[in-house]
């Protein structure tokens, strides 16, 4: 599929557009297959939205890469960095303080580390003070 497009950014843009169409279909209570999404059913997770959650994370990563690239092209003289940070699965009111989740304070520390690190560059992905790969080579 990657060969159909001229660059990886065009490929990422098209993938992001597909994800947006998927979420719009779900929001409108349409079958996701109407936009070409055929979810795999995982044993024990038949009713979970695991695949949609993963698609949303993929969308955030793609958007981070596209925005970082566009910012560099248009505003290279500005002192702004566009990166992504994962706070992890934190126990909050949103998930009823889920059992086994990490503390919200630890998640906040991940974000603060990325904000204050000396080596921050456009298009990076951070978690727990470590830079992780955002894209496959």
Note down, in words, how this protein is organized.
It is a single chain. The protein is mostly helical. The protein has three helices and three strands; from the N terminus they run ααβαββ. It has helices at residues 8-27, 50-74, 104-116, and strands at 84-85, 125-127, 130-132. A three-stranded mixed sheet has the order 1-2-3. Helix 3 (104-116) links the parallel strand 1 (84-85) and strand 2. Helix 1 (8-27) crosses helix 2 (50-74). It is flat. The relative contact order is 0.12. The mean pLDDT is 78.
Low-confidence stretches: none
Number of strands: 3
Taking Cα atoms only, what radius of gyration do you get, to the nearest Å?
A: 17 Å
Q: What's the overall geometry?
A: flat
Q: Record the strand order, biggest sheet.
A: 1-2-3
SS-based class? mainly alpha
Tally of individual domains: 2
First CA to last CA: what distance? 15 Å
Largest sheet: 3 strands, mixed
What multimeric state do the chains show? Answer: single chain
Note the total helix count.
3
Mean of residue pLDDT values: 78
N-to-C order of helices and strands: HHEHEE
Helical percent range?
40-55%
In terms of DSSP E residues, the strand content is: 5-15%
């Amino acid at each position: 599929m990657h060969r159909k497009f001229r660059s990886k950014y065009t490929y990422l843009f098209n993938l992001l557009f597909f994800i947006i169409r998927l979420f719009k279909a779900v929001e409108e209570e349409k079958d996701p297959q109407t936009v070409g999404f055929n979810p795999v059913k995982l044993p024990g997770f038949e009713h979970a939205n695991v695949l949609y959650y993963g698609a949303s994370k993929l969308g955030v990563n793609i958007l981070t890469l596209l925005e970082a690239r566009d910012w560099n092209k248009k505003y290279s003289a500005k002192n702004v960095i566009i990166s992504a940070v994962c706070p992890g699965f934190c126990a909050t009111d949103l998930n009823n303080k889920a059992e086994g989740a990490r503390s919200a304070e630890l998640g906040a520390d991940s974000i603060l580390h990325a904000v204050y690190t000396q080596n921050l560059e456009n298009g990076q992905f951070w978690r727990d003070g470590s830079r992780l790969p955002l894209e496959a080579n």
